[in-house]
């Protein structure tokens, strides 16, 4: 019989002891390529830039929105006055336009009332701008990081539109309770003692007691429909125009050209999606009501058209054009803030 007790395990020759016993170590194809090795150890580009994009979007959102808050409130009052019980049931005269709305609001409620709802708006807008911009860049880079015949899953304009729409919808779902709170607080007419809601917490707790969590998210389907159009055109149009114009001149666009592009894109996106925005605001106004004016989103479209006419879908659109200047500023300043952060090594 053979004595096999002294035989060594093959693992000593072909396992971890291979190099120690003089055998050359088996190397992968990427072991001698430092660039490939480094690329494996680093996360993808679309992920490494996410925190920077998040910070850049948050830097200027609240400041710009506070500046345009009076115009925003005038727009919301004009949009919702046909379904606002404070106007319909209180015997108040309806607003005739933006100037009349601002003048009467200052005269009846004081100048600070123009910023009513701005607290909830800033709380909503700070994460909204930060998430919208960072997610837009994230989704766009993911859509363009795949492989197809031209090296991308989608062509430039398609990827830009889809990234903007997806970012807008994702953000809206996250911050929707703050969005509806901002609308209801801004549309709450009167001085402090006769107002329906005293603040964000009071609104959310009141609606939750009356309608449950469904009331807090009332109008979300209509809001998502409008968000696809608005954010898709807002982000997708701006990024696409920047790319087209930059290719023509072979350099980065100067600030004034980006401002012109941003203003044109923002105004167009706002006007095209404005009827959808009007419907979503009307649906928001029904939370907490025992007798609702509209059964659903489709019923809201039908009743506004039959009772008020097509022009009612665009009520407050003029003030929205002025307000779009702030949204255009955010598009331009976002790129400038990112440049500053790159320069500062952030």
Automatic annotation (TrEMBL):
Catalytic activity: ADP(in) + ATP(out) = ADP(out) + ATP(in)
Highest taxon of the lineage: Eukaryota
Region (Disordered): 1-44
GO molecular-function term, one example from the UniProt record: ATP:ADP antiporter activity
Entry keyword Transmembrane: yes
Gene Ontology biological-process annotations: mitochondrial ADP transmembrane transport; mitochondrial ATP transmembrane transport
Pfam families the UniProt entry points to: Mito_carr (PF00153)
InterPro entries per record: ADT_euk_type, MCP, MCP_dom_sf, MCP_transmembrane
Location within or outside the cell: Membrane
Chief place where the protein resides: membrane
Positions of Solcar repeats: 48-142, 155-244, 257-340
Assembly and interaction partners: Monomer.
Role according to the record: Catalyzes the exchange of ADP and ATP across the membrane.
Protein name: ADP/ATP translocase
């Amino acid at each position: 019989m053979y004595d096999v007790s002294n035989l060594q395990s093959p693992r000593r020759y072909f396992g971890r002891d291979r190099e120690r016993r003089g055998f050359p170590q088996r190397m992968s194809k990427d072991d001698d390529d430092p660039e490939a090795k480094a690329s494996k150890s680093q996360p993808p580009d679309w992920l490494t830039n996410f925190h920077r994009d998040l910070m850049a979007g948050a830097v200027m959102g609240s400041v710009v929105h506070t500046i345009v808050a009076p115009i925003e409130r005038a727009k919301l009052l004009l949009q919702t006055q046909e379904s606002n019980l404070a106007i319909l049931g209180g015997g108040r005269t309806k607003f005739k336009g933006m100037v009349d709305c601002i003048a009467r609001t200052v005269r009846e409620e004081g100048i600070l009332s123009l910023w009513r709802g701005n607290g909830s708006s800033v709380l909503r807008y700070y994460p909204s701008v930060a998430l919208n911009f960072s997610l837009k860049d994230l989704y766009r880079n993911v859509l363009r990081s795949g492989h197809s015949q031209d090296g991308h899953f989608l062509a430039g304009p398609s990827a830009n539109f889809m990234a903007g729409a997806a970012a807008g919808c994702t953000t809206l779902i996250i911050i929707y309770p703050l969005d509806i709170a901002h609308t209801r607080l801004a549309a709450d007419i009167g001085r402090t003692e006769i107002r329906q809601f005293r603040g964000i917490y009071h609104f959310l707790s009141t609606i939750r007691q009356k309608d449950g969590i469904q009331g807090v998210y009332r109008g979300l389907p209509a809001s998502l429909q409008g968000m696809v159009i608005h954010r898709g055109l807002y982000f997708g149009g701006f990024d696409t125009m920047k790319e087209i114009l930059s290719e023509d001149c072979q350099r980065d666009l100067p600030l004034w050209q980006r401002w012109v592009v941003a203003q044109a894109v923002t105004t167009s996106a706002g006007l095209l999606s404005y009827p959808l925005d009007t419907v979503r605001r009307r649906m928001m106004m029904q939370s907490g009501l025992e007798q609702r004016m509209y059964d659903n989103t489709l019923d809201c479209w039908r009743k506004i058209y039959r009772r008020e006419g097509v022009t009612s879908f665009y009520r407050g659109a003029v003030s929205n054009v002025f307000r779009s200047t702030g949204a255009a500023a955010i598009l331009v300043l976002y790129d400038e803030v990112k440049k500053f952060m790159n320069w500062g090594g952030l």
